[in-house]
Amino acid sequence: MNRLIRALVTVVVLIGLIYIIFFSGYILATRQRGAEVTIEFWGWGRYDRRQNLADVAKAFEREHPEIRVKFVPIIDNYAGKVLVGIAGGKAGDVMEQHYLGFPTLAYRGAFLDLTPFIEQDNYDLSDFFPIGLKAYQYKGKQYGLPLWGSTFCLIYNKDLFDENNYPYPDETWTFDDLKKAADSFTRDRDGDGKLDQFGLNPYEFTFYLWSNGGDYISPDRTRCLLDEPAAIESLEYYKSVIPPGYWINQLGNEFELGNVAMTVQGPWVLLAREGKTWPFTVGVSLFPSGKAGRSTRYSGIGVTVWKETKHPQESWEFAKFLASREGITRAIYGEDIPSRRSVAYSDFFIKPGTAYDEETFIKALEAQARIPVALPQLTEIWNVMETAVRYRIVEEGGDVEEALVEATAKINEILARTSEEEWAQ
Prior knowledge:
CATH class of the largest domain: Alpha Beta
Distance between the termini: 87 Å
CATH topology of the largest domain: D-Maltodextrin-Binding Protein, domain 2
Oligomer: single chain
């Protein structure tokens, strides 16, 4: 009888142990599955970046097994789709964001303020280039983290300079030097009556405007300044260095063919061709100085968190990872300056053996890069300026002052629609 009781007790204990081991494991696994959070990450899904961004998501998941990242690549009209998604209440929890479109969406309350998360984690921002952080600030708060960004330099064809025994551009060059060189290299080489070599692809008008002491919006953001003498003088100069009938896209293509001596561009022009053969040797110098020094526009991409996300903490964790050293080196595809100094000054960006000095771009970023005034209607204002500069003046040969007066009136109408609250930063 005692043996039977002992046997029954043993069976009961074994069943209990099996229950505890099996069902507690089941409950734990269920809890883990229940605790899993999925966030959506929207990014530029250009074919040569998709794998990079997918790898970033996987690397993050390995460090955070409780969080799943659904990567949604967007190929065409990224800004438009983000705007529609936000307006419709269905956007990515974490989204890449170009800095030019950031002010409009920040004004509309699209992004989560990251400042409390930065403070709670004592998150160190000191490794970021300051201008990159500034590009994603609104009303004194940090609404995004920069991933990469740079500014523009003077890239030149060393072979053409050597053939013409012309001194290379350097940091002493002014607008006068640039104009002389542009005129010298613009010519009809084969004598058929048509230009086939060009001096300069000047890129964007605002660089010349800012460097000449002008601006397009008053400091209080209530008035357009394009009809003032500094702007008119700047655009007269800009018009003078572009061959009649040409535009920057055409001249950019001609530069890559070896038919333009100089182009104002960012590092992506050079880095995008890494591993490919240029038909000539390239050099890089700082943008020449105008009356007020040198100022060129910052251009970059950052990461933001949607304000309506249901998973703010998890989204913040992924945003942090994207902006980490590992995230940046995986995500940016090496076409621009990484947002962190520690990565920018490494061999990830500064490549040994290149014919040009990558550090010139970093120097330009730190010394001359400038962010346009953060206006909710920045894109609309930018389009008015480009129409005036490109179509009315460069391609149609219109009068500079007349075109700028027209543009000023249109921009003032845009500014008048904006209330004082909208300007408050």
